[in-house]
Amino acid sequence: MFNFDDASKKSKEAIDAMLKNYAEVAKGYQAIAAEASEYSKKSFQDMASFMEQLSGVKSIESAFELQSSFMKSSYESFVSEATKMSEMYAELAKTAYKPYEAGMAKASSMAPAPTQSVMQ
Fold first, then answer.
1. For the chain, what percent of residues have pLDDT higher than 90?
2. Residue 118: DSSP 8-state
3. Residues 6+ apart with CB under 8 A from 50
4. Long-range pairs for 42-48 at CB < 8 Å and ≥24 separation?
5. Is 117 within a domain?
6. Given CB 3.0 to 4.6 Å as the disulfide criterion, which of 6, 27, 45, 57 pairs with 63?
7. How many domains are contained in the chain?
């Protein structure tokens, strides 16, 4: 027999879990946006500082050396930031997938085992 109280309780639990997960995913997106904003701000400040230094250079050799140094530090900063952002996206994906883990594990355990091919 169908029990409305149990169905209501399960429905409330499912909705609470869904809302909690949505809140965690939203926090993840906010953290990624904040990180991207901070990196953009830092990158702009670094470029402005570089241009200021470049305008005061007295020789071509000094300009080339300054530019090489700036490009190296910019590249290292970009690689570091890209690594950090990819880790943040991976963590966000894990958070978004978390509510489905139990159902997927249950479904995969119920699936029949693969059979041997007839054409051997």
1. 60
2. S
3. 66, 70
4. 42/77, 43/74, 43/77, 46/70, 46/73, 46/74, 46/77
5. no
6. 57
7. 1
Q: Which amino acid is at 78?
A: F
Q: Is residue 4 part of a domain?
A: no
**Is this prediction's pTM over 0.85?**
no
Q: Quick check: is 3 in a domain?
A: no
Distance (Å, whole) CA 109 – CA 106: 5
Q: What is the pLDDT of residue 96?
A: 87
- Span between the terminal Cα atoms of the chain, in Å: 50
| pLDDT over 60 at 25, yes or no | yes
d(C-alpha 61, C-alpha 66), whole Å: 9
HEC assignment per residue over 100-114: HHHHHHHHHHHCCCC
Q: Which residue range(s) make up the domain with 50?
A: 11-96
Residues in the chain, total:
120
| Residue 120 placed within a domain | no
- What three-state secondary structure class fits 78? helix
What 8-state DSSP symbol labels residue 2? -
